[in-house]
Structures are given as structure tokens and as C-alpha cells.
Amino acid sequence: GRAEVPFGPDAVQKLEALGVIPEASVSFRDRYYDVPNWRLTLADHWLRQREGAGWELKSPLRPLEGAAASRGQQNHPERPAGARNHEPQHPPQPLEGRTHLATQYQEVTCPRDIVARVCGLLGVDPATGWQSDVARAVEELGLQEFASFVTRRCKYRLASLRLTVDLDEMDFGYAVGEVEAMVLREQEVPEALERIQELGSQLGLDMKSPIPGKMSVYLCKFRPAHYEALMRAGSLRKVRAATDEEGN
């Protein structure tokens, strides 16, 4: 499980007080793609190409009892036929979700699976040449880049809670922290989220108040029409203006 958390300027000092171990600091560029009518992102599917790491598709899992709450807006569309969780023989993928108001995600990295799911959402049959070539499928399906930004990520490990903490600073002026607990099975997600909550308590963080993710902030700033459409679909969290009252 993974949760975005509201780390402030003193985040590193607070983490060091808990005995975190610094692991790495890297910078990378992410590019996100969708068709012009935003069909993928409106269905809460996020296709990303990360510099040096390849392609990934984040797709929502079915709701887990006790592990995630509804967004309180419209339900997400059903996943396309054949879109299943990886079997245990595949490398474990992290499940992403924000604690409270959370949706759990599976991060799909197998090119064949990515192409199959994208084609399923778009209602087309995968071409033979697309099976292991996501870039070709993206081009021939007419997907377009709608977001591109550089992230500087500092990674820390907290052995006592079996958690990793990423502090991300984006080149468009936004910073956010992510706490991650790796899981092998969906059934482990509730316990993982409990560990994340425990870290939040130790750091004195307000884990109940939702915070906007980096994509929400980026689209609000640079792609307002796309942002508004995703807000109406319940796929993004509202970016509060500085004059808004707390909690709106």
C-alpha cells in the first residue's frame, strides 16, 4: 500500500528523529499519455513512461472491504475483460492508495498486459506488432502526451515499520511525500495501511485530511479542462486555492 502524506519543510528532520536510513536520491522525467477524449484517465487508468524505467499502467483494483473508502462520487468503470491481478509467479507490484478516501491501484509493467488493458478500455483489438511494444501501440492508437515533468526523489527506509518513504519535489513547484509498504497479495493491504497510519501518528501528521496528488496539481495548473473533467468523474482530488477554507 502507498499513501501520499502532507510532509512539511521539516520532513527530513522528523524522519531522522525516527531513525530512517537514507537510501538514494534520483531525478527522472515522467510522461503521461491518453487519447484526446481522455478515455483512459476518465476511467482512472494512468499510462506513464518514466525515463530510464519504461512503461507502467496504474489501474484501479476492485474495492477491498476495510481497506479503502469510496471517493463518494461516481463509481469507476469495470476493468476490461482479461484484466486480472498478476499471479504470484510475477514480480510483486506495489498497490497504490491514499489512506482515507482511498482507491487501491495495481501498477502493471508487463508490456503485453499494458497493451491489452489499454486496448480493452478503447474497445479495439491489439495489433500483432503491439504485443511487446507499448510505444508503437501508443503511436498507432493516437495517444498523446498530456503531462511531462521532472521529479527529484529522496528515498528513505524505516526498518521498524517495514516502510519506505519517498520525498518528491516536482519541477513545477509542488512537493509531496509518499509512504509505501510492499505487499504480495491484496489481502495484505489493510495491514500495510495500518503501518502507514502508525508512521503518520509518530510524525504528528494529519492523515485524515485529503491532499492533492502531483497529477491533480499539474493538471489544475497546466491543463484546466482535463482537470475539471477528471474532477467531475471522481478521478482526481480537488486542488484547494489558498483562499479556500480548510477541508473544502
From TrEMBL:
**What start-end ranges are recorded for coiled-coil regions in this protein?**
none
Which of the seven top EC classes does this enzyme belong to?
hydrolase
The EC number of this protein is 3.6.1.28
Tell me one Pfam family matched here: CYTH
* InterPro entries associated with the record: CYTH-like_dom_sf (IPR033469), CYTH_domain (IPR023577), THTPA (IPR039582), ThTPase_euk (IPR012177)
The cofactor remark states: Binds 1 Mg(2+) ion per subunit.
Q: Which GO terms describe its molecular function?
A: magnesium ion binding; thiamine triphosphate phosphatase activity
Can you list the GO cellular component terms from the UniProt entry? cytosol
User: Major place of localization?
Assistant: cytoplasm
Compositional bias ranges of the Basic and acidic residues kind: 76-89
Listed A to Z, the keywords are: Acetylation, Cytoplasm, Hydrolase, Magnesium, Metal-binding
Catalysed reaction, written as an equation: thiamine triphosphate + H2O = thiamine diphosphate + phosphate + H(+)
Residue ranges of domain CYTH in the record: 12-211
Summarize where Mg(2+) binds, as residue positions.
D166, E178, E180
Q: Name one GO biological process term.
A: thiamine diphosphate biosynthetic process
Cofactor(s) needed: Mg(2+)
- Residue ranges of the region described as Disordered: 67-97
Q: Where in the cell is it found?
A: Cytoplasm
PANTHER family, alphabetically?
Answer: THIAMINE-TRIPHOSPHATASE
Subunit structure, as described in the record = Monomer.
* Function in brief: Hydrolase highly specific for thiamine triphosphate (ThTP).
Q: Which family does it belong to?
A: Belongs to the ThTPase family.
For this entry, the protein name equals Thiamine-triphosphatase
Species of the source? Podarcis muralis (Wall lizard)
